[in-house]
């Protein structure tokens, strides 16, 4: 009875091991086939090596197989091939597509401003120092009163390039925006150039008011210090001495008396 149970357990273990081996073999087969397909897509014009059968179609005992090059043969799977053909790939750029330059109205295929800032302007019309100059994020926020959300979250999000800080390489990198697009974004935020100027004037007045208030506070403190000093001097100058009893000095034949308030000592002669 015990031997029958042992045989049954061994049979179940063998079945489980056989199942695992089959699953592993299937996974390896799928990987090898995917690898073969990826090589075919990546190098569609690669020359075949006449001295090797790797990747070639073989027919063994009426079954079509592929030499995987890893010591085993892969059965061809038409269904898997069809699934791989359905894999979507990123379409290649349309070489025949032309863009119309906003400046010269001429057609062009590609340009720096188009690739970097989505601005349809050809390289010939690009004005690096003028209309198409760059501005840092800090300057854009200060000059046009923009916030981070106006640049990074408001749609469409403005594109930028990152450059090392020319003043100090150890500082953080700078974000450079297209000046033209910053001006357009400022008009979207403030509605018009007049509103932007009014807001700048209001903030400037507020800033100047804070400076004046701070300056007046310092002047007031300085005046209080001066008045306190003058008060002490005036008090000392207007003091009236109250002398005590006279003391006679036989050696000099003089008299001395001392103020009982401030301690001032005075020596004099009596006629």
TrEMBL record:
PROSITE patterns associated with the record: XPA_1, XPA_2
Entry superkingdom: Eukaryota
Protein name: XPA C-terminal domain-containing protein
Organism: Atta cephalotes
GO molecular function: damaged DNA binding; zinc ion binding
Gene, per the UniProt record: 105625089
One BP term from GO: nucleotide-excision repair involved in interstrand cross-link repair
Segments forming a coiled coil: none
Pfam families: XPA_C, XPA_N
Swiss-Prot/TrEMBL keywords: DNA damage, DNA repair, DNA-binding, Metal-binding, Nucleus, Zinc, Zinc-finger
Keyword Cell inner membrane: no
InterPro entries: DNA-bd_dom_put_sf (IPR009061), XPA/RAD14 (IPR000465), XPA_C (IPR022656), XPA_CS (IPR022658), XPA_sf (IPR037129), Znf_XPA_CS (IPR022652)
Entry GO terms, CC: nucleotide-excision repair factor 1 complex
Subcellular location: Nucleus
Every XPA C-terminal domain range: 131-182
Family: Belongs to the XPA family.
